[in-house]
């Protein structure tokens, strides 16, 4: 298969902002300018909190930070602006450390900004988080309509929780304030903030999963309310232009009263214009590279190989995923099964390491999926394993960031084959973790947002084309060194230049442009 032969996604005649996405010029000075003016009225709102308090075995209170790059990136901004982060307090000791306003100052050692926690009962979380966010909006946006569960009366709790976020935001941000909302858990909050006449801050909202075509989204039971909710924002961001185009089409189709300017990427609904922009998210590349070259990574890597009987000269392929049905893991294992059948020369020489992190397991579709992955792992091993070689090593252990960086570095190829994925950070982490003379080859599904950015230099795969996928693995395994280097150099500079910090800067630079254009005397921002 020719890498890049399926990059049909680069031209969207009705939405010509790809060039803008590729021009990454926002510098620290621009960000500093914004942060200086933002001061205390800078608010982030997300379902997940950046710090969580729990009771340790000795009864003391421990603080943990989620591993994700997004929270780390936003945490850094918050530390600079000393603003407020509003999130669901899901830690068992969270209540024990807050003040009378449900707020704790974080980070724990330097106490720079406010983390305001919202409390929800188990019943509310069941409806808002599990039923609506994860069994309705997640599959819907991933175009997995057969997996969408009827929402019954859970919607009213989703609306309630979103309104609690809106109330907290309205309390914290006055009309000069800037609020940055995250993701699909808070689709109604922007409109609910507008409905509180007390304040009118600038609202930016980053949607981290795909936005599907209108023909798919119209299956949503509350489609008009969701779109109205999001059109309360001043700025709405997705990872890639395809999702922006889908959203504009959805806005036009769902609500009669919208005026959509495709060329400008703007929707006007009633008296507000929402600017819609693509910002492909990156990873903390410098941190990952430093971890990958550290002692802990090397120690973990060697111990992992020993424990799992992987010989020193074995070629390693890696996959790292939450065990989510969007990630295409059984399809990947089927392709490996086919590889060892069609290309028996790789038997004994190639081991595939699958790191699969348990997620949302109590949802039946996830529990079934996790069983399916286990069966697919067993199938490949039953078909091909020998006395001294196992083709697939599967672990569900949660691995430390350093350990993961060590595994990425040990791998000669990465197999990233989602059926649908908003962006995908794993493929970028893999590139960031290659150090010194490493030149890992990346196989990437054309269904991931990241493919729109990296597609030219990866070996492209289609997750359902089992034989084509197996051929692509063989192509990667036999790729001449010069070609590996050529592709890797391009992937490396793209991932390092477009890291998480750059993503934050780019979003905030657009916020600055839009707020400045809105100031009295400035030109109309909308054209
Ligand atoms: C959503 C969108 C979008 C996994 N296992 C371990 C571990 N992980 C980390 C990976 C990576 C993260 O989980 C997964 O990120 P992805 O981007 O692949 O996927 P989602 O979780 O579905 O994220 C996605 C993203 O939001 C951001 O907008 O890219 O499209 O679906 O960072 O490293 N980390 C560690 N140990 C593990 O065992 N340390």
Structure, described:
The chain has 20 helices and 18 strands. The protein has helices at 18-22, 28-38, 69-81, 94-97, 122-141, 155-172, 189-195, 214-217, 223-230, 241-254, 285-292, 295-307, 329-342, 364-384, 401-410, 426-433, 451-454, 466-477, 481-497, 500-518; strands spanning 42-46, 52-55, 61-64, 84-88, 103-106, 113-118, 178-182, 202-206, 235-238, 258-261, 266-269, 272-278, 315-322, 350-357, 392-395, 413-416, 441-445, 459-461. A ten-stranded mixed sheet has the order 5-6-4-1-7-8-9-12-11-10, with helices on both faces. The chain has a six-stranded parallel sheet with strand order 15-14-13-16-17-18, sandwiched between helices. Helix 2 (28-38) crosses helix 20 (500-518), helix 15 packs across helix 16 (426-433) and helix 16 crosses helix 19 (481-497). The longest helix has 21 residues, at 364-384. GDP-alpha-D-glucose (GDG) binds next to helix 3, strand 13, strand 14, helix 15 and helix 16.
- Uncertain runs: 1-25, 523-527
Assign the structural class, choosing from mainly alpha, mainly beta, alpha/beta, alpha+beta, or little secondary structure.
alpha/beta
What is the overall pLDDT average? 91
Shape: globular
Helix percent reads: 40-55%
Strand percent estimate: 15-25%
Which molecules other than protein and nucleic acid are bound? GDP-alpha-D-glucose
The overall strand count is 18
Arrangement of strands in the largest sheet: 5-6-4-1-7-8-9-12-11-10
Individual helix count: 20
N-end to C-end Cα span: 43 Å
Largest beta-sheet characterization? 10 strands, mixed
Radius of gyration: 23 Å
């Amino acid at each position: 298969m020719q890498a890049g032969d399926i990059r049909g996604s680069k031209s969207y005649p009705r939405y010509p902002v790809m060039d803008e996405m590729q021009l990454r010029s926002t510098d620290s000075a621009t960000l500093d300018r914004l942060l200086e003016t933002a001061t205390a009225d800078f608010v982030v709102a997300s379902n997940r909190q950046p710090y969580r308090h729990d009771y340790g075995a000795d009864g003391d209170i421990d603080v943990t930070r989620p591993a994700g790059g997004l929270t780390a990136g936003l945490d850094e901004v918050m530390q600079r602006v000393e603003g407020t982060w509003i999130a669901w307090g899901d830690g068992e000791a969270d209540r024990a450390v807050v003040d009378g306003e449900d707020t704790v100052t974080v980070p724990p050692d330097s106490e720079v900004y406010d983390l305001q926690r919202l409390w929800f009962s188990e019943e509310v979380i069941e409806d808002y988080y599990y039923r609506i966010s994860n069994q309705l909006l997640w599959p819907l946006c991933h175009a997995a309509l057969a997996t969408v569960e009827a929402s019954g009366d859970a919607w009213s709790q989703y609306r309630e929780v979103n309104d609690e976020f809106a109330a907290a935001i309205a309390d914290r941000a006055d009309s000069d304030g800037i609020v940055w909302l995250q993701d699909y858990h808070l689709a109604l909050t922007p409109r609910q903030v507008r409905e509180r006449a007390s304040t009118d801050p600038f609202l930016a909202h980053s949607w981290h999963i795909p936005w599907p075509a209108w023909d798919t989204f119209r299956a949503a039971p509350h489609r008009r309310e969701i779109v109205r909710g999001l059109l309360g924002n001043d700025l709405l961001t997705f990872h890639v232009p395809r999702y922006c185009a889908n959203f504009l089409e959805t806005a036009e189709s769902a609500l009669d009263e919208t005026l959509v300017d495709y060329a400008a990427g703007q929707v006007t609904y009633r008296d507000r214009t929402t600017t819609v922009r693509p910002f492909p998210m990156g990873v903390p590349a410098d941190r990952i590279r430093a971890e990958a070259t550290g002692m802990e990574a090397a120690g973990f890597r060697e111990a992992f190989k020993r424990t799992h009987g992987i010989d020193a000269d074995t070629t390693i392929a890696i996959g790292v995923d939450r065990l989510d049905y969007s990630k295409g893991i059984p399809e990947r294992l089927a392709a490996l099964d086919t590889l060892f059948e069609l290309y028996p020369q790789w038997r004994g020489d190639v081991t595939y390491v699958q790191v699969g992190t348990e997620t949302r397991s109590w949802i039946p579709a996830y529990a079934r999926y996790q069983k399916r992955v286990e069966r697919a792992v067993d199938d490949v091993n039953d078909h091909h394993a020998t006395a001294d070689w196992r083709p697939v090593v599967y672990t569900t252990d949660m691995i430390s960031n350093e350990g993961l960086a060590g595994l990425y570095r040990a791998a000669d190829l990465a197999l990233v084959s989602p059926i649908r994925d908003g962006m995908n950070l794993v493929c970028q982490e893999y590139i960031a973790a290659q150090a010194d003379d490493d030149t890992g080859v990346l196989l990437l599904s054309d269904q991931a947002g990241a493919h729109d950015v990296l597609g030219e230099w990866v070996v492209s795969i289609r997750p359902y084309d089992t034989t084509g996928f197996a051929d692509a693995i063989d192509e990667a395994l036999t790729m001449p060194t010069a070609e590996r280097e050529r592709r890797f150099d391009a992937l490396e500079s793209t991932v390092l230049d477009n890291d998480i910090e750059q993503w934050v800067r780019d979003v905030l630079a657009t916020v600055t442009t839009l707020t400045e254009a809105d100031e009295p005397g400035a030109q109309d921002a909308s054209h």
